[in-house]
Fold this sequence. Notes:
7-stranded mixed beta sheet
Amino acid sequence: MLKITIIYDNTVVEKHVKSDWGFAALIEYQNHNILFDTGADGHILLHNMKLLGIDPKDIDMVFISHHHFDHTGGLAAFLHENPDVSVYVPQSLRGIRHAREVHHITEACEILPDIFSSGELNHIEQCLFIKTNKGIVIVSGCSHPGISNILAKAEELGHVHVLFGGLHGFDNFKLLHNIDFVCPTHCTKHIQKIAELYPNKYIKGGVGRILTYPFKNERNS
C-alpha cells in the first residue's frame, strides 16, 4: 500500500488545518513513514500533523527536496519532537543538526527498496521516485530543475505513473500526455489549466488530501 497525505500546502481540503506557503507530505510505503519536506513554519507543520492524526515519532525518515525556506522551515521543530530519524538532503544543503544521521545526496540512488532519490538535479533539488506495479510515482518539491529533466530521470526507472507536488511555472502541458495522474500542489502556477486539459488525470491537492494506491482522479474521488 502506498499512501500520501498532504500536511502542508497553500490550500486545504479539511476543516481546522492551516494553509501556508510551503509544502510537506507524509509518504507511507512498505512499512516506512517518510516526511517529504517540512513546510515553512514548524508550528503549522506540527499543528496540521496533530489534526491529521500523524505522530512525529512514527516517522523514520525525512527527505528534503531543496534548501528553500518553504520546504525546510519546519525541520528544526520536527527534529525537536523526533530526532531519531535519517535525513536525506541534497549535497548543497548543509547545517542539519539534531538528527540521528544526515545523508547528503549528489547522484541518483536507491535509498530504500523501490524508493529512490533522483540525485541533486541542476545543483538545487532532488525528487523522490517510488516504484509501484503501475509505474513510477514522482514526488517533487518545486520542480526547479524543470519537469522535462525530472521526467527523463524518472523514466530511467520505468513508466511515470503519477506526478505529484509543486510544478512552479510549468506550462509545457504536452509533457503530461503519457502520465496517468497528476496532482499539482504548492507553487504550481497553472493548476486550473492542468485540471481543464487533463480532467481524467487531475487530482486536487491541499492540506488533508490523502492519495492512496491505486489512485483515482478528481472526478472519481
